[in-house]
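Listing 4. Sequential folding, example run.
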Amino acid sequence: MNALEKLNRILTGVLAIFAGVSVIALMLLAAGNVIMRLFGFPYSGTYEMVGFLGAIVAAFALGYTQVKKEHVMVDLFSRKYPPLLKRFVDAASYLLVMAFSSLAAYAIFESGRVLKRKEEVSETLKIIYYPFVYAVALGFAVMAISLLIDFLGTIFRGEGEDSS
């Protein structure tokens, strides 16, 4: 499993770098548009590009955030569970969210295929945008891999058990 974990860390790290670059591009684009608007020369298609970049940021950060365990988690009750029950609840949670992420990745990928087949373009800039849809599907797929690793770790190594 160490090879899978290593591959996952590389994948999530690369996607996190792309997410960071996208945040910077989004910020520069939005700020530049505000400044240029003051002079009467707003950028055309800013809204579209901000939307595309925002989708990249959100999707590409999913797996990395899971690896770092930085998602919002409410464990009001589960932190009081006995270790074996907590381990079971954690494993079940990982499995359910992994299934959802996998289904989301598949459905989003299929939407991208439809957009590609229909040769859809964005309204203002007239650029093909199915690659952005595929990128979001990739983000969900990597999230599913991260959750699979967490599930297996919880089952086989007892990760998630409270050591106190």
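-- end of first protein; second protein begins --
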Amino acid sequence: PLMGVPFGWAKPVPVNPARFRRDVRMGTGMAITAAAGPASNLALALLCGLGLGLVLRLDPAGPGVGLAELLNKAVLLNIPLALFNLLPIPPLDGSRIVDGFLPHRLRPQWEALGRVAPFLLVGVFFFGWRIIGAPAVALYHWIYDLSLRLAGA
């Protein structure tokens, strides 16, 4: 536990570069693979938002209220997860995306950042909402407005 709060660390996803297409560079393939996690969080948030709109359209005040709350919570959870994971701090996926496209001449500075990454990550845990809060809220409102339009509201 970190300050009394249960804290876990994700394991890196094993990637077999031999499965990349032959025309994809190793760095590009790793960046695309890393982008799949945040992209799936955003896709899930969007799908849950669309599902929320359908539930509200078909059953605005009936038994679907619990399902609507669940879908809304899924949107609220997946957006910050995606944005947090896109931060370019190792070991987050954002760092692997940057790493895949970084010019060779900037490698020493990037590797220096990697040495202080654990401290940066702790800082993000404590102050991260200041970084991702405004984009997360804006994206949530966009998805929620889309779901309300789908619901006919």
